[in-house]
Amino acid sequence: MPQSPTVEPMWEAILRATGGKPYTFVVMPFGSRFDTFQVVERAVERAVGLSCIRADNIPASGYDLLGKVQMAIGRAEVVIVDISEPNQNVFYELGYAAGIRKPILLIAEKGVAVPTNLKGLQLIEYEPPRDRAKAEAFSNSLQAELQSRVNTQVALLKDMLLGESPLPACIFAHPLYPSSSARIRGQLPDWRTFGDNLGILGLLSAFGAIFGETTNVELVSARYYAPELPERDVNLYLIGSGKANPATPGMLRRLMRDREPKWELAPAPGESAQGDYPVSLYRTERGGTNEVKGKTGTWPSAEGSIVHTEDYGIVMRGPHPDHPNRLVLVMAGAHSIGTGAACLAATKSFLIQRIKQKLPEGVLADKHCTFWALVRGKTNDKDGMLDMEGVKVEEAGVYSGA
């Protein structure tokens, strides 16, 4: 008996259609208005950098059509609906998108009568885009509206993380083995290391949202990289202080270039850089150096340990000193909590927005600026670990001068 052909899961078909990127879903009658769709597709890419698909971009064979459309709408960042034709399927899909509270933007040919119950939704009218000037006018209106209403998550990630030439990209990290004998002094042993771990996961998640699933980012051991790698023509993402990541101190100095404030992660007062030494974050400004110090507390454990409950980290981003079209991003703290806080602040759009608000207008998107952000991480009361709600952006500033 012949076997039925294997049908890939619906979500995999959507991933393949979008390249794994966040996307806008366009609702219009099947097989029609392709010239209009092409204008919409280009406008979406220009305005917000999302993929743009409609139902006939997703394979139909073996799928329930209604289920396919509902899943595509459910996973979309925004839904654009062309109501130029009184099509029952279009209005059903519009109702479904409204029912699950998706952001909706209506488009229609000029002169089309808009149903009364849709007049509260934003509508962009267009003329048939066969004429170049008319197509451009429609595209400009659509781009402006998309930029004002679409979730800015991907735009923030791009502004923060991408160099002018975004690939290749190398993440330098050295997650510690989470055991009582290998842990950082004053830190509870745990099955995860939430300093480097948060940075690796945050960067890979962000790059997946930006590039989709077709681009590779290199993960490099911060202890065993080729000595010349930091000077190569690549984008660098450095996680951790010099104790864990030997590339960090030199690159921090090169990014600051003797400008103030100077940030340094070095042995704590009275300690030397030997073995499992404690690290402190130092700030030098106007001739004075101060230790930026967090807090310790107790947490129930077999050892009754005194642990770090609050710590500071530094985020610094600027053009690569040797390759101005590449980017260097440093995320580091005195302890795991500080490093984790810096990693979350640099890779989560909610916290990137907080950094952006503390910087002068346009700095975040300017890949030729070097800026810093001081962040504070505070452990939660549930398991003594760090989550996004425990991170605060304290200060941020720009290094001026060529």
Write structural notes for this entry.
It is built from ten helices and 16 strands. With 402 residues, it is an alpha/beta fold. The protein has two domains: 10-151, 3-Layer(aba) Sandwich (Rossmann fold), CATH 3.40.50; 155-399, no CATH class. The chain is elongated. The model is unreliable at 1-7 and 181-189 (pLDDT under 50).
What percentage of residues falls in helices of 4 or more residues? 25-40%
Structural class: alpha/beta
Beta strand %: 15-25%
Radius of gyration: 25 Å
- DSSP summary: helix tally: 10
**Unreliable spans:** 1-7, 181-189
In brief:
The chain is an alpha/beta fold and 402 residues long. It is 30% helix and 25% strand. It folds into two domains: 10-151, Toll/interleukin-1 receptor homology (TIR) domain (Rossmann fold), CATH 3.40.50.10140; 155-399, no CATH class.
Question: How is the topology of this model organized?
Answer:
Layout: H1 10-18, E1 23-27, H2 34-48, E2 51-54, H3 65-75, E3 78-82, H4 88-99, E4 104-109, E5 123-126, H5 132-149, H6 153-161, E6 169-173, H7 196-211, E7 218-221, E8 235-239, H8 247-256, E9 262-267, E10 279-285, E11 288-292, E12 295-298, E13 306-319, E14 327-333, H9 336-347, H10 349-358, E15 370-378, E16 391-399
Parallel strand pairs: 1-2, 1-3, 3-4, 4-5, 6-7, 6-8, 8-14
Antiparallel strand pairs: 9-10, 10-11, 12-13, 13-14, 13-15, 15-16
Helix pairs in contact: 2-5, 6-7, 6-10, 7-9, 9-10
